[in-house]
Structures are given as structure tokens and as C-alpha cells.
Design goal:
The protein is α/β, with parallel strands linked by helices. It has 2 domains: 177 residues, Flavodoxin domain (Rossmann fold); 33 residues, no CATH class. It contains 8 helices and 5 strands, in the order E-H-E-H-E-H-E-H-E-H-H-H-H. It has a 5-stranded parallel beta sheet, with helices on both faces. The longest helix has 21 residues. The chain is globular, with a radius of gyration of 18 Å. Bound molecules: flavin mononucleotide. Flavin mononucleotide (FMN) binds next to helix 1.
Length: 220
């Protein structure tokens, strides 16, 4: 079965999303040759091509980062652009990947409900939603720290190529932890007390020359 991957990260080819879909595709290509296409919503001039692809696609993996407990605007725009294509490809297999910065997969459960509904509205064969938390900074981590996650994505892609379904046991492992346990929560509380809680965010703000503007508000 041919697979189309839609990457909905504004960071496009530099995104964490791509790191995960690359691993998925590595596994998929082992069972299904090179039968995949990849689109980046950050590549602005895609509208017509994406709609055409949607009509003819056999299976679709729509992957994006969680943004403010939902999705990047360009993903919403893509969904809305398909409004007139609702019954144009019944039975198309649609699956999603939502990856987030915070470690708890629970944050993504609510957008996953929307995604399931979206897939149903399009008369598709809904494959499920892969949820992975704790992806913030993954590209800065040494290879050994991300190996387990990438191997799981690779296996998921392999199984998808072989059986045309998402393996639920791998999805379950990827979505752990759903919520942080008492020990981890205690650690974060302690980090906040010793003012370590904002270290990473401050570093990001400083490296983007935005630290001084961190309390700015948009005035109406
Ligand atoms: C504007 C913005 C909003 C975000 N909102 C959330 C959020 O609500 N929850 C969360 O866990 N992570 C959030 N994140 C973190 C991203 O989901 C995370 O860094 C992700 O791995 C980025 O993926 P990408 O490189 O594919 O864009 C947000 C990041 C940005 C830039």
C-alpha cells in the first residue's frame, strides 16, 4: 500500500516531526519498497497538489507537533481546505501522529478526539493516532537517548508496511507516560523552587533574542 506523509510542522524539514516520520518510513520501506511520498505544509505552494493527492491516496499519515494543546494553524488550514473533498476517496486509510514537548501524552488526547472525528467525516478507514510526548529538544539529545523512541517508530512503520495497520501495543508504549507519577511531579516542583524550571525556556528565548520581550502582551 502506498503511503503519503503530510508533515504539519512550521519547521518543515528541520522539524522533530520529520525525525519521527523518517524513522517510521525507514521501517515502512523495509517492507514496502520506496512507495511513499512526503509533503511539508510549510512549503506554501502545495494546496492544489495536496488536494489532488488526497483524492488518489491509498493511505495518509498526517503528522504534526502539538501547539497550544491543539495543532499548528497550517494544519487546521489544510484540514479546512479539504472540506469539498469529503466523499472523494471513501475508504482511504488515515492515521495521525501528534508529538508534543511536554512528556505527558494526556495533553494530546483532546486533539486526538478531533482527529478521529475528522477521519470519520471523510468516510475513511481510521488507523488511529500515534501520540508521543517529551519530544521537545530531541534533536539536541545524544543518539543513545533517542534510540528507543526511534526504534519504536521504525517498528511501527515496518508493521504498517506489512499489515496496513498501526500496531496498538507500540502505540501504547509510545504514549507512556500518560500522566507523570508523583516522583516526577515532585522533581519538577523542586526544579521550580531552585529556579531550574525555566532554564531551558530561558535558553531558547535568549538564543532567539526574545528574552527581554518575554512578558510582552499583544494590545488590542
Ligand atoms: C507555539 C508553540 C506552541 C506549543 N504548544 C505546546 C503545547 O501546548 N504542549 C506541548 O506539550 N508542547 C507544545 N509545544 C512544543 C512542541 O510541540 C514541541 O517542541 C515539538 O516537538 C515541536 O515539533 P516540530 O519540531 O516538529 O515543530 C509548542 C511549541 C510551540 C512553538
Amino acid at each position: 500500500m502506498k503511503l503519503t506523509v503530510i508533515n504539519g510542522s512550521p519547521k518543515g524539514k528541520r522539524s522533530n516531526t520529520k525525525l519521527l516520520t523518517d524513522a517510521f518510513l525507514n521501517g515502512y520501506h523495509k517492507t514496502f519498497g520506496n512507495q511513499s511520498k512526503e509533503y511539508f505544509l510549510s512549503d506554501k505552494k502545495l494546496d492544489a497538489e495536496l488536494q489532488r493527492d488526497f483524492i488518489h491516496a491509498e493511505s495518509l499519515l498526517i503528522a504534526f507537533p502539538l501547539y497550544t494543546d491543539s495543532m499548528p494553524g497550517m494544519v487546521k488550514e489544510y484540514f479546512e481546505s479539504l472540506e469539498n473533498y469529503k466523499s472523494s476517496n471513501p475508504g482511504i486509510k488515515i492515521g495521525f501522529l501528534v508529538q508534543s514537548g511536554f512528556p505527558e501524552s494526556y495533553h494530546s488526547f483532546f486533539v486526538a478526539r478531533y482527529l478521529k472525528k475528522f477521519a470519520t467525516l471523510f468516510d475513511s478507514d481510521y488507523l488511529g493516532t500515534i501520540i508521543k510526548g517529551g519530544v521537545e529538544g530531541i534533536q539536541m539529545k545524544p543518539a543513545w537517548m533517542r534510540r528507543k523512541t526511534l526504534k519504536r517508530f521504525e517498528k511501527l512503520g515496518f508493521m504498517f508496511g506489512k499489515y496496513g495497520r498501526f500496531d496498538q501495543s507500540i502505540i501504547k508504549k509510545l504514549s507512556t507516560p500518560v500522566k507523570l507519577g508523583r516522583f516526577a511531579l515532585g522533581f519538577f516542583k523542586f526544579a521550580k523552587i531552585i529556579k531550574l524550571g525555566n532554564f531551558y525556556w530561558d535558553y531558547q528565548l535568549k538564543s532567539n533574542n526574545a528574552y527581554e520581550k518575554r512578558f510582552d502582551k499583544h494590545s488590542i
